[in-house]
Write a structure and sequence with these properties.
The complex is a heterodimer of chains A (about 210) and B (about 350). By secondary structure, chain A is mainly α. Chain A is about 70% helix and about 0% strand. Classes of the chains: A mainly alpha (about 210), B alpha/beta (about 350).
């Protein structure tokens, strides 16, 4: 079970984590992209923070939708529409809920992944955030099916995320600006996959 | 980093404020969300042309807002796509009832943000079409990349479509024209140095004093290959020959169906250049290369085109689509016909491009 208060705490913690990792994400992006991922994600989540008090007593769907709208209008780049769509679909999947059961979490994660696929048209192995999100979502779903608690399932998801994040290093990018590097994109960890991992890991740490 | 700025976070806004102060007869600037628009917008029954993209490419796009070119431009943060709310508010401001054409450079961020913008505008009852510019031949593979990037041809498409909108082409005619310019335009660039994004404060990539990056994009994203520095003639030859020898290029793009309100896959093919073609030759500075060097490039370009039987009927030389302070240049060749020549020659009055008015 995930409560509304935990969701809000998670979002606040994400803002802190992204600020701490701003330079790290930007350095990753400089290697294979355009050196702005940390800057943009940090700008977006710093704008989320002041929005939270006004929606903290609303349902989780409304909270996540507010995050989505804020990211869409403040992040820019490819990450803005991708993370914006991710949170928008997640919000729709849990509309009206005051707390999330494990089944709600499964639905939320699946909707988030589907949104990213639809917006970015990436496939697994293209060296994008999808390479972390999709296996992590699957791992969570499997763990819940196996009878794990929320925290245990999330632990599995984050462990999977960490592993597949490393797998993005040898991948050759096929989407986004990194794709222009061709084979030269291999040997670098994907920045979008890294921010996705950090956001998931922060959720585990919040619970 | 040495830059003539106050604070990195204020670069885009302060630059826009200065631009508004410099050109009050041509443009107005709206802040939060940021967009630049024609002082006389909306113009009734004229299709409104909107473009946008990350800042750092000035004068593109804001410098091309005015009579005979764009109705609005949406600048993002430096090298970061603008957000859909900017394009939506700009569309509401400049739509004169004949619809809006968004000219979009093929970068994943620009494409996704403009796609969301088109969906939002559609839901508010504005007829809108998005046309992609993807002319950078340095990108060979469209299957395993985002496809060719939008570079120099964007400037030419904005001028030509702007003139056509002024002549009251309707939205579908303009979309067809923009597609025609795109498939007949080819570009390739070279970097002699990296650029430095103000918010980052250090060069985007490392390039030694003796190296160049051939096929560079306009954000410092890498190109085809890195090689030792060569003479201007040799570099020009390499870029122009790559453009002339580029074969037919086929890819699938997504275009908005304004009637059905859904995305369609459209297949487009760029016809290769042929001896006897009339062309517009565009030599562009990446920002840090002086005009004198661009003319050295243009001089060689003319010689090569003569040898290959390409007739340069129009040209453009200068910094029009830049990459901050990067040294280097790009060359764009656009195959022309009578319609494109007439529209290129039509009057234009913007901060960065003016003739005939």
């Amino acid at each position: 079970m995930v409560t509304k208060e935990q969701i809000v705490q998670w979002l606040q913690a994400v803002a802190v984590v992204l600020e701490q990792n701003k330079d790290y994400l930007t350095e990753l992006d400089a290697a294979i992209g355009d050196a702005d991922h940390g800057i943009n994600m940090n700008r977006g989540f710093q704008k989320v923070i002041p929005q939270l008090p006004s929606v903290a007593d609303k349902d989780i769907g409304t909270i996540l939708k507010t995050v989505s709208m804020t990211l869409i209008s403040s992040v820019g780049g490819a990450s803005g529409p991708l993370y914006g769509t991710l949170f928008l679909r997640a919000s729709t999947a849990v509309a009206g809920k005051q707390e999330l059961t494990d089944e709600d979490m499964v639905a939320l994660l699946q909707a988030a992944v589907d949104g990213v696929v639809e917006r970015g048209k990436a496939q697994l192995g293209d060296k994008t955030m999808l390479d972390v999100l999709s296996p992590a979502s699957d791992a969570f779903k499997q763990a819940v099916a196996d009878g794990a608690s929320t925290a245990e399932a999330l632990q599995k998801a984050v462990a999977t995320a960490e592993e597949v994040l490393n797998n993005t290093i040898p991948m050759v990018a096929r989407k986004g600006r990194a794709s222009y590097l061709g084979d030269r994109s291999a040997g670098h960890q994907d920045p979008g996959a890294t921010s996705a991992y950090l956001i998931l890991k922060t959720l585990l740490e919040t619970l | 980093m040495k830059k003539l700025i106050n604070k990195p976070d204020d670069v885009v806004r302060e630059s826009l404020e200065g631009m508004a102060a410099a050109h009050p007869d041509l443009i107005k600037v709206h802040l939060d969300p940021h967009f630049i628009y024609r002082v006389d917008a909306p113009i009734q029954n004229k299709v409104a042309l909107i473009s946008g993209g990350g800042s750092g490419h000035e004068p593109m796009h804001g410098g091309f807002v005015g009579v005979g070119m764009l109705d609005a431009a949406c600048p993002g943060e430096v090298f970061t796509s603008p957000t859909p709310d900017q394009m939506l508010e700009a569309a509401k401001m400049v739509n004169g009832g004949a619809g809006v054409l968004n000219i979009v450079k093929n970068y994943s961020g620009d494409v996704m943000n403009f796609e969301m913008a088109a969906e939002l505008a559609h839901s508010e009852g504005i007829r809108v079409l998005n046309i992609l510019i993807d002319d950078d031949i340095a990108v060979k593979d469209s299957l395993y990349t985002q496809g060719r990037r939008g570079v120099g041809t964007t400037v030419l498409a904005e001028k030509i479509c702007g003139a056509a909108a002024q002549e009251r082409y309707d939205l579908n005619q303009l979309a067809n024209l923009c597609r025609k310019v795109n498939i007949n335009g080819r570009s390739m660039g070279v970097a002699l140095t990296s650029c430095t994004v103000p918010a980052k404060g250090s060069p985007t990539f490392e390039l030694s004093d003796h190296e160049i990056e051939v096929g560079i994009g306009i954000h410092g994203e890498p190109g085809r290959q890195r090689m030792p520095l060569k003479s201007a003639d040799e570099i020009t030859e390499m870029l122009v020959n790559s453009i002339i020898e580029d074969s037919a290029y086929t890819r699938t793009v997504r275009e908005w169906d304004a009637d059905k309100g859904e995305w369609l896959e459209v297949e487009l093919t760029d016809p290769p250049l042929q001896s006897g073609d009339r062309i517009l030759a565009f030599v562009n500075s990446m920002g840090g290369t002086p005009l004198s060097e661009l003319y050295i490039v243009y001089r060689k370009l003319v010689q090569i085109c003569e040898n290959k039987g390409l007739h340069i009927v129009r040209n453009l030389v200068g910094p029009y689509i830049t990459s901050l302070d990067m040294q280097g240049c790009s060359i764009t060749i656009l195959k022309m016909d009578d319609e494109l020549i007439r529209l290129w020659d039509a009057p234009v009055k913007t901060p960065a491009l003016r003739w005939g008015l």
